[in-house]
Amino acid sequence: MTMESIREFIRREPFEPFVIRLSNGEAHEIRHPECVAITKSKVIVTYPEEDRVIHAALIHVNAIETLEHA
Fold first, then answer.
1. Residue ranges per domain, the chain?
2. What is the pLDDT of residues 20-37, one digit of tens each?
3. pTM value > 0.85
4. Which helix (H) or strand (E) covers residue 9, if one does?
């Protein structure tokens, strides 16, 4: 997955929540655009309510899907 593919989801107007699926089977829901950051080689997902941060290499992002009825 490319950095620009994920940025397209983050920048959608209006924002639509989406899920990032990783090669290890993890799925991370992005409900607010400020809870995800993209670098050249990584995606960083934050869960502020849990005080948790996930770092994943972009090569491990298998899919991005819009969440229905989020």
1. 3-66
2. 999 999 999 999 999 999
3. yes
4. helix 3-11
Structure tokens at 41: 């080689």
The residue type of 54 is I
Give just the sign of the alpha carbon dihedral 28, 8, 44, 51: negative
Which one-letter DSSP state was computed for residue 39? -
- CB of 43 within 8 A of CB of 61? yes
CATH topology of domain 3-66: SH3 type barrels. (2.30.30)
Mean pLDDT of the chain: 94
Q: How far is CA 42 from CA 1, 14, 26, 36, in A?
A: 10, 24, 15, 11
